[in-house]
Amino acid sequence: VQPPERPLQAEEWNRLRESFQSPEIFEEVMFNSMVRCNSSIDVAKSLLTHVANSNGDIAYNLLVKYLALCVQQGQTSEMCDVYDIMKIRFRILESGAYNLLIRGLSNSDQWRMALTLLEEVKKIMIPSRTNYESCIKAASRHQEMNLAFELYHEMLAKDLVPTLDVLQAFFEFSRGMKGAQLQKELFGILLYLRDNQIYPHKTFMRSIKLWFESIPGGNWRGHLTNIKDSGQCPVCNHQLEDSDLTEEEYNNLRERIIKDVIHGTDTFRKTSPQEFEAFQTFVENRLPFDIVIDGLNVSHIKPRRMHCENV
């Protein structure tokens, strides 16, 4: 369905609806098409008005689709109007509407309203990573770094894993700012990357480099380089720490996997103790291995072929 290029009158919408092969879903399909084609807000609003006049009401799903178009175009006042309508008509909203509102408002001059909505979400569910990150970026953008880090720690406490995008924002918007606490927080992010062996992409590396070089009173210089196979940095000549597991760490990992993953809470759920012991003996008698292939997964790799042919 191709959306009209101008707002339509009631009779024009009716004619379009009647010519549509499934009139009962016409409005829903039309709004989806408007979002896809990024139609004018006035065109979408004329359809909403027509629906309200015809039915005396606008369904929740149509309001959400209209909201998606408003967010897509950064129409802040319209977002606020839709929220006011939804708040009056529905006691609570579902996560999709909250996600749209928080994302849209956090990118506007009404960004503090996104924080209010985040508090509202907390009362009924655990906010999504996207909810937190939208608010963190908004606070960082407005140089409210204490607030941004407060939200960041709250997010981590809820076991939500941050994206590199939001971690980069911290370095991006802290450039040239003073404060021992701020530096401590940013070094904490670098330690988080190091401890979890997360490697920043090129634009993130550049943000880290520029932040170091902007530290007031500091004398940092950053360079992009290639590390030698020996693990030595050609620029500063320092030896990078080894990321290989020690024997003790490997044994701890091995024991935890056997205990928590293979045995689980019930050894008899997938195997018997005797069968598992026989498997361990089989593996130890044939060490070392270069490659282990999971035959069951390989057998399903091409669904239209016989499993044995895949293997």
UniProtKB/TrEMBL annotation:
The keyword Metal-binding applies. It is found in: Mitochondrion. Transmembrane segments: none annotated. It catalyses: Endonucleolytic cleavage of RNA, removing 5'-extranucleotides from tRNA precursor. The keyword Mitochondrion applies. Its cofactor is Mg(2+). GO terms for molecular function: metal ion binding; ribonuclease P activity. It holds the Pfam family PRORP. InterPro entries: PPR_rpt, PRORP_C, TPR-like_helical_dom_sf. One of its GO terms (cellular component) is mitochondrial ribonuclease P complex. Keywords: Hydrolase, Magnesium, Metal-binding, Mitochondrion, Nuclease, Transit peptide, tRNA processing, Zinc. This is ribonuclease P. It comes from Burhinus bistriatus. The lineage of its organism: Eukaryota, Metazoa, Chordata, Craniata, Vertebrata.
